[in-house]
Design goal:
The protein contains seven helices and 45 strands. By secondary structure, the chain is mainly beta. A hairpin with a 2-residue loop joins strand 27 (about 550-570) and strand 28.
Length: about 900
């Protein structure tokens, strides 16, 4: 019977292709042929699919049935999304791209815009984040606890919390939708190819369990999932100092004036562990068809640590005040960039950089749906909270007695930039914790907490008589109250009473090999233990330069919406969709402090509180035209907004007055920012073959009316700050000096926008659509092309990375490709995934804890998976085995300053291999 159905599938799909090729005229065939085709389609729908095809077909159904332009992924089975991180799966969707952090896909760009422009929901509710911003770090959500993700590329008036580039909604299991009890267990063992170093092995594991069942005559449903992971963190990196600058005559002896040159280089071997535990639970109660109550709970807690054992050399004529730098045999390329040479009279350091981070996310949501005849009411309350605590510690070692100067051979070509010192730095006894040219050490203990409370009340009722265009009307109100706080204590890590000292044997690890950078072996040691034994670290928040790093941002957003759902016909063409409007009332504020050193002791920390409120009206239209032969044409237009970054809304500032001119000035955040605003138009054509396959072409255009730039502006009102300053300094001013109330402020401001446009091509095709002999084979492929006329002036704090000239939009890759080839038959599964993107400007965090922008080389990441599932009727029914390899080609992460011959970071995370087992009762 199965073979008969498969033959029918081939016939029906081949017929659909023929109909598409020959045009709409083929649809005028007689009624008997139509009925026969419908009967075949109905028969095809009874085919039971599992594994890869099941996930693909579920996702196709979501896309086809949506009234908006969406992309979707769906778990092949409970707890079986195919990737290690949910971000890996999301990044394979058309128009989406991931940026890797620590070797894992962590943040997502949608349609060429940075993660700032997208929002993330969990079961339709906006989520908090552990970072300084509102964008979610997706690797905090175990893929095993997520049943699917829907990405909304066009706005919908009924969707609250949507972004400007897109809205990503992660969904967990709904137990009352399951037919049978499910108990699923899985385990994975993994290894990183870079191997063991500094006392850390390259192994990891993942353990997952899920339970879904219904009780009390199917009126109560319960789903519980647990995920544990322990992953090895392994990294090789070479980094060059910023900026690459054109040196002047005699600045760097031996280097010609005008040459672009970096003032330092480092190589490191990073090792550590990342542990995470996650729990998901959903309880549903449906005593009758008139009431469904759903309670969701989600909790994830992560703990990770790593140590970067590194050698670092200052090449900028700074060695502690000893002999001057001298560069010999300098080679300069045609672009004016320094390529190689020998730097003499440098004083290398060996450093230990330790980071420990703990974060947690808690989320609760309670949804109640009531039906009264043709009227449906929904009440939803939600709460989520995120917390992050970090400890960053640094030890610095140098050879003694000072100076122990060296000559180092430099070559910035090849897989990694190379530097080879003349001395041997592998002996622990020759290196001392001391007050080096970079001090003895520095540390930080940042803390972030983010809390979001929400309430939503919505109603759906039939359209009034006479409104034949609409099937029903949705209206509602949503209230969200968010508060994000950051503190960051910092301080020097000073030598203890014992003075200069080497690292004791009981704190030493086996030396690490920096041979990939040409630097040989260097010591590795237990950094936090060395700080505790030999050093003094008392972090504080009260130093003048730390006062602005403590801030709170509060947001209250009330969203009311009205949406009319369209279900009609234009001539013989069925049309569905929606038209509606949202009104967003935003009340934003921030509190912080600034330091005024001219004030009396005890009054130098001055509070600052600022904010504003405003209303945005956001109309939207989505139309889906159901053409013959399962063709769908979609059209959408809308006004969209994206809230400013949370850290850009901070009220903190660094303030001062130039007593020679009377001009005040400051730098900091801006609580008076308006959001990014865009008018958007989307058009797509989609051709479906049931829920088995589809091809699609989509184009979009976004006219950004505003953009947020960090820049220096004159005329900023400093009345509050100047008045306080005059109270303390007025009598000491030079005669005749008048202090202005307005001055220069370097901060985020709203400015003019521009346009963003793109095209997306997608195909999801089982190959037996064309040839029966290719049964089991299939491909899913997409290509995205983006362009923008928006050129932004870089943040003054990031000009050392990207220059001072206008740059393209951060996150924008002009080309993004995703390709998946698979084979699935008789229990065997083979899957090959490739994702590729062109160069883009990415966002990273620097040592100061601030974000900075870098040019990032395009990536090409290849993953593979092989598996086998035992069939029903065998003694191993429900058991499946798999082998998975991530980053098969060991694709590097590389950043550069303006042009690729001026490297900044070159990072290698290695390949990750996993072997696993799943068992489903």
């Amino acid at each position: 019977m199965l073979d008969i159905k498969r033959n029918l599938l081939s016939v029906a799909l081949a017929s659909a292709i023929t109909l598409t090729a020959t045009g709409v005229q083929a649809q005028t065939a007689d009624e008997e042929a139509k009925n026969k085709a419908q009967a075949q389609a109905t028969d095809l729908d009874t085919v039971t699919v599992t594994g890869i095809r099941r996930g693909i077909e579920s996702a196709i159904s979501v896309k086809r049935d949506s009234s908006s332009i969406v992309e979707a992924i769906s778990a092949e089975d409970i707890g079986k999304l195919p990737d290690v991180s949910i971000a890996e799966s999301i990044a394979r969707l058309p128009g989406l791209a991931a940026q890797r952090v620590a070797g894992r896909a962590q943040v997502i760009s949608v349609r060429g815009l940075s993660p700032d422009f997208a929002t993330t929901l969990l079961n339709g509710r906006e989520m908090v984040s552990t970072g300084d911003n509102r964008s979610v770090e997706f690797d905090q959500y175990p893929s095993e606890l997520i049943s699917g993700v829907t990405v909304y590329k066009t706005p919908d008036a009924g969707l609250v919390g949507q972004g400007l580039s897109g809205t990503l909604d992660m969904q967990t299991v709904r137990p009352l939708s399951y037919g049978d009890r499910v108990i699923a267990l899985s385990g994975r063992y993994q290894k990183n190819s870079l191997g063991e170093a500094a006392g850390e092995d390259p192994y990891g594991n993942r353990i997952n369990a899920s339970f879904v069942d219904k009780f009390a005559d199917d009126t109560i449903g319960l789903a519980i999932g647990y995920s544990h992971s322990e992953m090895s963190k392994q990294e090789n990196q070479v980094g060059l100092y910023e900026p690459w600058q054109a040196v002047g005559d005699g600045w760097r002896p031996g280097v010609d004036a005008g040459t672009y040159y970096s003032d330092g280089i480092k190589a490191l071997r990073r090792t550590g562990k990342a542990k995470r535990d996650g729990v998901m639970a959903t309880l549903q109660f449906r005593p009758n068809n008139a009431w469904t109550s759903t309670l969701d709970a989600f909790y994830t807690k992560a703990k990770e640590y790593d140590t970067a054992n590194q050698m670092e050399i200052h090449l900028g004529d700074f060695n502690g005040g000893y002999d001057r730098l001298n560069v010999t045999d300098a080679v300069i390329n045609d672009n004016g960039s320094f390529v190689s040479g020998v730097a003499h009279n440098v004083y290398p350091l060996v450093r230990g950089m330790y980071n420990h981070r703990e974060d947690s996310i808690k989320a609760l949501g309670w949804n109640n749906e009531f039906t009264f005849g043709d009227v449906r009411l929904v009440a939803d309350v939600s709460w989520s909270k995120a917390e992050r605590d970090e400890i960053n510690l640094e030890n610095n070692l140098q050879m003694l007695p000072a100076p122990q100067l060296d000559s180092v051979t430099l070559n910035y070509g090849g897989k990694f930039p190379q530097f080879t010192p003349g001395r041997d730095y592998s002996d622990y006894n020759n290196l001392y914790l001391t007050n080096t040219i970079y001090g003895s050490g520095y540390g930080k203990t940042p803390h972030v907490d983010d809390e979001l409370k929400g309430f939503k009340l919505a109603a759906t009722f039939p359209a009034p008589d006479g409104f034949t265009l609409f099937s029903d009307i949705d209206m509602g109100i949503n209230y969200a109250d968010r508060s994000k706080n950051k503190t960051q204590a910092e301080g020097n890590i000073n030598l203890g009473a014992q003075g200069d000292t080497s690292i004791a044997a009981d704190l030493q690890y086996k030396p690490v090999n920096l041979g990939f950078a040409g630097a040989g072996y260097i010591p590795a040691w237990n950094v936090p233990a060395a700080v505790a034994r030999y050093m003094v670290f008392n972090p504080t928040t009260t130093e003048s330069y730390l006062i602005p790093k403590q801030w709170t941002v509060d947001e209250e957003i009330t969203t009311t919406f009205l949406r009319a759902n369209i279900d009609t016909q234009i001539g013989s063409i069925p049309v569905r969709g929606n038209i509606g409007i949202q009104a967003q009332h935003v009340d934003q504020s921030s509190s912080s402090n600034y330091w005024d050193g001219s004030q009396p002791v005890g009054s130098q920390v001055i509070p600052i509180n600022q904010g504003k409120s405003y209303i945005d009206f956001l109309p939207s239209l989505n139309l889906a035209f159901q053409l013959p032969a399962e063709n769908t044409v979609r059209f959408a237009m809308a006004r969209q907004v994206a809230r400013p970054r949370v850290d850009e809304l901070r009220a903190s500032m660094e303030f001062g007055v130039d007593t020679s001119t009377g001009k005040p000035g400051a730098s900091g955040g801006n609580p008076n920012l308006d959001p990014w605003v865009a008018n958007a138009v989307d058009l797509s054509w989609e051709k479906y073959f049931g829920n088995k396959a589809y091809v699609a072409v989509a184009v979009f255009y976004k006219d950004l009316k505003t953009y947020i730039y960090t820049e220096k502006r004159d005329g900023y009102d400093f009345t509050q700050q100047v008045d306080a300053w005059l109270d303390a300094n007025g009598i000491t001013l030079p005669p005749g000096l008048v202090v202005d109330k307005t001055g220069f402020y370097t901060a985020p401001f709203n400015g003019n926008g521009g346009s963003l446009r793109g095209a997306e091509l997608t195909a999801s095709l089982p190959l037996d659509l064309f040839f029966e002999s290719l049964k089991g084979f299939g491909v899913v492929a997409s290509a995205s092309f983006n362009d923008s006329n928006i050129n932004i002036m870089p943040d003054p704090a990031t000009t050392s990375s990207v220059g001072s000239e206008p740059i393209m939009l951060p996150g924008l890759s002009k080309r993004v490709y995703n390709f998946t080839a698979y084979y699935e038959n008789s229990g065997f599964e083979v899957r090959l995934n490739q994702r590729k993107r062109s160069d883009f400007i990415g966002e990273i965090g620097n040592f100061n804890g601030a974000r900075t922008l870098r040019y990032v080389k395009g990536e090409d990441v290849l993953d593979a998976q092989v598996g086998y599932s035992f069939a029903d009727g065998t003694m191993f029914k429900g058991l499946s085995l798999f082998l998975q390899a991530s980053n098969l080609t060991n694709s590097k992460y590389e950043t550069y300053a303006g042009s690729e011959d001026r490297p900044l970071e070159t990072v290698e995370w290695g390949r990750t291999y996993q072997v696993g087992v799943n068992y489903k009762f």
